[in-house]
Amino acid sequence: MQTMAERLRGGGFTALHEDARWQLAAGGRHFVIRGGSSLIAFVVGQEAPAVSGFRLVGAHTDSPGLRVKPKPALAGDGLRRLAVEVYGGPILATFADRDLGLAGRVGVRDGDGVALRLVRFAGPLLRLPNLAIHMNREVNDKGLKFDRQTELPLLLGGAAADADAEVGFRALLAAAAGVETGDVLSWELNVFDAQNGAFWGADREFIASRQIDNLASCHAGMTALLEAGPAATTNVCAFFDHEEVGSESAAGAGGSFVVDVLQRISASLAGDGEAHCCALAKSFFISADMAHAWHPNFPAAYEPGHRVAVNAGPVIKTNASQRYSTGADGAARFILLCEKAGVPHQHYAHRADLGCGSTIGPLVAARLGVASVDVGTPMWAMHSARESAGVLDQGYLVAALAAAFEA
Ligand SMILES: [Zn+2]
Description:
10 helices; 26% helix
């Protein structure tokens, strides 16, 4: 969120706050943050929204993984461990034997009130060592499994027998947050793969990194918005937390954030309720989230007629049960945007006999009542601690989204 805000400020955007009145004018570049983890950025169009509508791109900011519990410190047998809770649907086995970092925000005492401080232990801090195969003889036949309660606590360090593990953990956070240990009140901390992203493959045509789902789409949307020139339409990027756990939160896509922001844009530009309804009826929402690339080792997992390849362009995702918001209108509009941008596109449908994932597209489309499409960049190993994708697709998606903002 901090990185996004810095990039936006560098691009001439100014921060708005939800608890103050907004004064907007054509060409204005602004962003607003809710809950510290969801952000909506917009450029006010040259025409009123009632005339040309909103062009929206949405993505989610969160990734599945492990979150530190409120009272996480475990000590015994000369070791300190951290208790964690599973957030969303990570592939748990991929967190084993990896260099794990820790980052998030810490609530601290600030005079008579509270403040939130960002902390980040970028290097290897934590680890989930595997049990040796000599004690887990069937691991290669039955798969690598961890009990979520008893087998996931992460090793943090050695411990003196008389040391208080809770105080020790709070002291670690206090030092990172630049406060006294007694002033650490609360935290939201996420465990991540500490290894940097890397290009791989014979021609370095692939990339591996943590959190490609869905920071890649956030990056693409924001880049397109920053690079877009003056437009008749009001262009909006909406980035939401909590997608991996269902989006029903104050800051999530199921909440009122995007509804409130669009209403306030209309209201600030002297539009009444009727004008806002006209604006929504003329709007188009592109929900950008990652897609499942064809994996040749597992052909039975895919719908044979809808294989999508990495480095072959954005994917239009369709599901008759509305797990994706795509309909004929949205798909056709996005195909035209790809043509305009000169990039290829692909179509994905999940196997009919497998449960399909979902994303923010259907939620936002339902909340706003706008025309929409679900698209995304193809990737492998979605929800692994270290995911991979093709190097060409990010540029393709940026170009297609930029075309939307120029429409
Ligand atoms: Zn996603």
